[in-house]
Amino acid sequence: MRCLLQRVSEARVDIAGETVGEVGRGLMVLVCAMRDDAEDKAAALAKKVVNLRIFSDEAGKMNKSILDIGGACLVVSQFTLAADTSRGNRPGFSPAAPPDEGNALYLKFCDFLRDHGVPVETGEFGADMQVTLTNDGPVTIWLEN
Fold it and tell me: Distance between CA 122 and CA 124 in Å, rounded?
């Protein structure tokens, strides 16, 4: 699985003009299941996300996790993280998991975050979404397993 984390002061996702998920301080998590991924990868990635120390402590150093700050995650499925641009200018997405598998792993990833005690808001798998966020820092981190 792959994900792109953005530390945010706020984030929301809208579908057809309606807000379906929003968070305050926390993480915007764009996530993509890859071919042959399984639940163990979703669990490992969720554990990494909740324990990653990318929030500032009292001294201004990135030393706190989302659990430490009581933050939330806005998790949005993003199959384009699987883009293969090695053969020209039009990306291919065959490395991404098929839609049914991708959706199941996306939902499991969200469940694993919740199991760790992180509040989770989501977009809608496969929908045309508009994502708005304020990247805090900016801090943006790529994770893959």
Answer: 7
Active-site option among 6, 19, 55, 78: 78
Among the four given CATH numbers 3.50.80.10, 1.10.468.10, 1.10.390.10, 3.40.228.10, the one describing domain 2-135: 3.50.80.10
Instruction: List beta partners, residue 2.
Output: 32, 144
Residues 81-108 pLDDT 10s: 999 999 999 999 999 999 999 999 999 9
- For 16-50, the pLDDT digits (tens) are 999 999 999 999 999 999 999 999 999 999 999 99
Active site residue 78: yes
Residues in CB range of 124: below 8 A, 6 or more apart: 15, 20
Q: Which of 80, 130, 132, 134 is catalytic?
A: 80
d(CA 141, CA 47): 15
